[in-house]
Amino acid sequence: MEFDVKDPGLAEKGKLRIEWAAQSMPVLRSIHKRFAAEKPLQGTRIAACLHVTTETASLAQTLKAGGAEVRICASNPLSTQDDVAASLVVNDSIPVFAIKGEDKDTYYRHINSALGHSPHITMDDGADLVSTLHSDRRELLQGILGGTEETTTGVIRLRSMADKGVLQYPIIAVNDASTKHLFDNRYGTGQSTVDGIVRATNRLLAGSGFVVSGYGWCGRGVAMRASGMGAKVIITEVDPLRALEAVMDGYQVMPMEQAAVVGDFFCTLTGDIHVIRREHFAVMKDGAIVCNSGHFNVEIDLDALASMAVARREIRDFVEEFKLADGRRVYVLGEGRLINLAAAEGHPSSVMDMSFANQALCTEHMVKHHTTLKKQVYRVPMEIDKNIAKLKLASMNVDIDTLTPEQDAYLHSWEMGT
Which residues make up the binding site for substrate (predicted)? Predict the structure, then answer.
């Protein structure tokens, strides 16, 4: 079996951590049980470019239980948990190509390795796998039935491809499911991002100026958690509707050029390029801490900061100090990559339970219905979204009301009024 992981000897530690995470993933566990009995993915080859974490391991095990042949690579050079990668190889016989801290060349070599079995289904987190297929590995496109995409950044890229007519197969935007973005993006990103910042720095958030750039679901989550820990949260935005919502939620809203002067912590979550730039570094406080929780490491203009620095050093794990000519120091966390996975463990398993339930069920849907789908990006079918919500509520021992026949008739009637 082909694989490339840091150390297969880490497998036992990884196995225990996977078991720990799985305890909080009851929805995926129920899907695993059904997949093992029904084998809906029998004979399907899946290439998955995802963060290689304990939760991803449970998804991979579920797909394999359903009959799929799965290969996995990392969707971010710093997000791999090496013990988990080792466990999947040693204990589950799933080929994994991922090493925490891999360089760019290794990252793309691993993507190509994940495509080495000529997949039928792609499972992406950021669309690097799909992009590689459409640029360097076009000979494999004919065999692709469809795919899924996990994150906002990837969905944006894929919709751009579809709009330009270059997307060559249908893809389901898992990120658009309510049981994904309302929980994973908001509560998962909120908790894990603050976790990563605190682990990396051990600095107090209470009383600090905490700048959140981007008030989408991920930004909302980070703002909520930082505020809950006593930070004075400032939002920067380009969308007037989101900016207005942030104001109504009680946060200060201002342009980055103003926020850069007063912030102590900065976290970007926009999915766009160079949100924090040279002119912002030029006015930051001494000791400002800058990080990113958007998908790629392009949100912070690290080249500009490097060119401004007269000295740089790693002062703590995942903390790099850039000393400027006037003596001020700016600290960048996790090389500007996803801080929640670079310095922490990513989202809690209980929210990834819903996200990866969507991945598993959307893969099953794609295998069954790909012949009826066009080369475009689709939303998660509502029946899948609602089914996952019901399963999650049941696992939490939460009951809800059901409509009476009278209520149902009223909602479907145009004759009844006041």
Answer: 53, 125, 150, 180, 184
